[in-house]
Amino acid sequence: MMGVCLRYAKSYDEAEDILHDGFIKIFHSLKSFRFEGSFEGWMRRIIVNTALERFRSKTQLYTVEEFDDIEEEDELDVKDAPLDVLLNMVQDLPERYRMVFSLYVLDGYPHNEIAEVMQITIGTSKSNLARARSILKSKLIAYWDDQDQKSNLRIC
């Protein structure tokens, strides 16, 4: 569950706080678990909701007009990027972009659910995702340029 928290938190300490608060909610809600799905999935949902509650309580949300013409950006070419590098790039995104990116890409939420849980419009969700992807794309390009420069270095 710590991995889930780290996707939504800006720092390790904040992730620990989310995990702690989430487990308190889990223990208080054990009686409501209905054994219809996996226990892990139920716990994950509580942890994600705890992270979202924390986000909503401390962040002023910016709204954007609904955009029907926001195009999904091309898939990022991340196949050769090390996982730790990618996770650090996601971690460095501005909070509202990181939250939407994590919910949409990593957890598979549709925009209408993201909009509902984050209390933003669907257009804002799409816009934040597009901006997150754009930032990540720029960071990946810079990373690959840096890697190319390092591979071209010769030690005499």
From TrEMBL:
Residues 85-134 form the RNA polymerase sigma factor 70 region 4 type domain. PANTHER family: RNA POLYMERASE ECF-TYPE SIGMA FACTO (PTHR43133), RNA POLYMERASE SIGMA-70 FACTOR ECF SUBFAMILY (PTHR43133:SF46). Pfam families: Sigma70_r2, Sigma70_r4_2. CDD domains: Sigma70_r4. It comes from the Bacteria. InterPro entries: RNA_pol_sigma-70-like, RNA_pol_sigma-70_dom, RNA_pol_sigma70_r2, RNA_pol_sigma70_r4_t2, RNA_pol_sigma_r2, RNA_pol_sigma_r3/r4-like, WH-like_DNA-bd_sf. The keyword Lipid metabolism does not apply. This is Sigma-70 family RNA polymerase sigma factor.
